[in-house]
Amino acid sequence: MDIQIETVFLVGIGLFTLASTYFLFAHKKAFNSAFLVSFITIISYTLMLEGSLASVGAEGGAVYATRWLFYGLSCTLLMYEIAKFLKKSKEETIFLLYLTAIVMATGAASAYFDGLYMLGFFALSTVAYVMLMYPLLTAVSPHTSAVSKYILLGWTGFPVAFLLAPDGYGLISAATAAVLYLLLDVFTKVFFYLDLHKKMEVQ
Amino acid sequence: MDIQIETVFLVGIGLFTLASTYFLFAHKKAFNSAFLVSFITIISYTLMLEGSLASVGAEGGAVYATRWLFYGLSCTLLMYEIAKFLKKSKEETIFLLYLTAIVMATGAASAYFDGLYMLGFFALSTVAYVMLMYPLLTAVSPHTSAVSKYILLGWTGFPVAFLLAPDGYGLISAATAAVLYLLLDVFTKVFFYLDLHKKMEVQ
Amino acid sequence: MDIQIETVFLVGIGLFTLASTYFLFAHKKAFNSAFLVSFITIISYTLMLEGSLASVGAEGGAVYATRWLFYGLSCTLLMYEIAKFLKKSKEETIFLLYLTAIVMATGAASAYFDGLYMLGFFALSTVAYVMLMYPLLTAVSPHTSAVSKYILLGWTGFPVAFLLAPDGYGLISAATAAVLYLLLDVFTKVFFYLDLHKKMEVQ
User: Fold this and answer.
1) Confidence of residue C1 (pLDDT cuts 50, 70, 90)
2) Would you place residue B114 in the very low, low, confident or very high pLDDT band (cuts 50, 70, 90)?
3) Number of CB pairs, chain A paired with chain C, less than 8 A apart
4) d(CA B152, CA B82)
5) Nearest-CA neighbor of C102 among A190, B73, A43?
6) Residue B131's closest chain C neighbor by CA?
7) How far is residue B1 from each of residues A2, B5, B61, measured CA to CA in Å?
8) DSSP character string of A170-182
């Protein structure tokens, strides 16, 4: 494997080990989703570092389709917290969790396949993503602006990185893509929780 | 791939794109399972059309074991609506959802393997299926007759098609099987919801 | 496949067929998790008997990584009953179910990979396992002692067997490991429920 990508994954494992340790001891909650999200991310990065499940994508770059399956696990937890923060009903929350899982599973398929099927699964993923974002960003709630930063900038950064990466059209290298994904991961999974916990103390 | 099977899958993608669009706009529900079921079915058909996950079954016909894994996702949603319609308790509903997932996962294994293991997993699937059907069809509820048509004719059509298809004994071609499965899909996933929504308005 | 391992798996299928039949008729509960756990174990053993998903582990012994994925399904059910018995809150129960699934999924990865990655995933699995055990064994509840036997002796037996088996360092043969796992399965999945049901009648 490319030594640069390997380094990025090792840095990711290190950062999320720190984050999960912090969330474990700093947040004594019965359902500590902040810890779970960080811990699941360690597992995802370890699997990518091992590398045997990677495939070859656009312009010959390495593609880690499993990344998106693990986002299916971590982002449903994030979405659960977002929905709770925005005071969504139980029924709507479950619908949003299904959409999140669909976005990530079709994302994994889009990363794994090439050409027309990459596009087809990306289109299905985008439909589910728009359906997911619409009720979150239009919610009439004083809390909307607090999470919309993470959603608009953070979450939406992933499909943009995807299209540039070997997952999509390979306009940037797999190593550059790995750095971008890592920055987005830290923003949406660590900074998000630090901010959320601060806001919930204020309430 | 066989051009006939390809056509059937394309028709399936078209029909369920129409159905999911219709359910999205016609049913403004917080938990829109009708949309989710149709959308999951589009994903399943797209994956089968891509074809690289297909295997060779009885008499050399193509087998799409992933079909049954996706039924595990869509049919748990259908079963949730059926259980709610029949006013089953929360505990019993969860039990029925587990059974539904087991029926489909063992169905996928039965499709994937040959000979004795095809039969063994089919037997396990049948046991779970009988346990699933029994409380539904014997429920003393004025609503039982409304759903029993979809269950008795519709759901039970799948294992019959399975045995005839290359999934089972290959007595019919993979293309004929694909047509049969598509008709059953439209009946149990589109007509079912149209009927259910009409009945729930009447209530 | 080794005829000895084959025999152990066949005995396992036989024992859990008896257990699931017994639990089906003896426990008329709306959510019959005892039946589900035994039935899922039949499926797991049938898949291992088929053998095509096995890989080669330490000292050349056979490794069945799927075993741990199925424990992810059955042990979440067991953990649900343990948490209910210890009167854990709904939020904490969901956290414990996530941890259980993480223990088993990282266990599957640890079984599947070799060398440093075997150790790395085993370490992640151990962290989640310790976090799972701590609140269970320190719970101030008159019921703790009743389940701690199954947890301390039973559940903890699995990672010990894992390290000895070809999953880990291959100090014992795959057949010996299969016998050990079977004994632990019967203890934690059959005896546990017989004992639990007796205790719940007494209450």
Assistant:
1) low
2) very high
3) 34
4) 13
5) A43
6) C24
7) 36, 7, 11
8) -SS-HHHHHHHHH
Assess whether pLDDT exceeds 90 at residue A139.
Answer: no
Best residue in A28, A41, A47 for a mutation probing chain C (most C CBs within 10 Å)? A47
Q: Answer yes or no: is pLDDT of A202 > 80.
A: no
Mind listing the pLDDT tens digit for each residue in A79-111? Answer: 999 999 999 999 999 999 999 999 999 999 999
Cβ burial of B132 (10 Å; 0-12, 13-18, 19+) is buried
**How high is the ipTM of this complex?**
0.94
Cα–Cα nearest to B188, from B17, B86, B71, B92: B71
Nearest to A102 by CA among C153, B33, B196: B33
Percent with pLDDT over 90 in chain A: 80
Question: Between chains, do A91 and B31 touch, taking CB under 8 Å as contact?
Answer: yes
Tally of CA atoms within 13 A in the half-sphere of C136 that contains its CB: 28
- Asked if C107 and C68 count as a contact pair (C-beta separation under 8 A), the reply is yes
| Strands C55-56 and B62-63, sheet pairing | unpaired
Nearest by Cα to C160 from C114, C129, C116: C129
Predicted local distance difference test score (pLDDT) of residue A201 = 75
C-contacting chains (≥3 CB pairs under 8 Å): A, B
Dist CA C139 CA C143 (whole Å): 9
| pLDDT at position B66 | 97
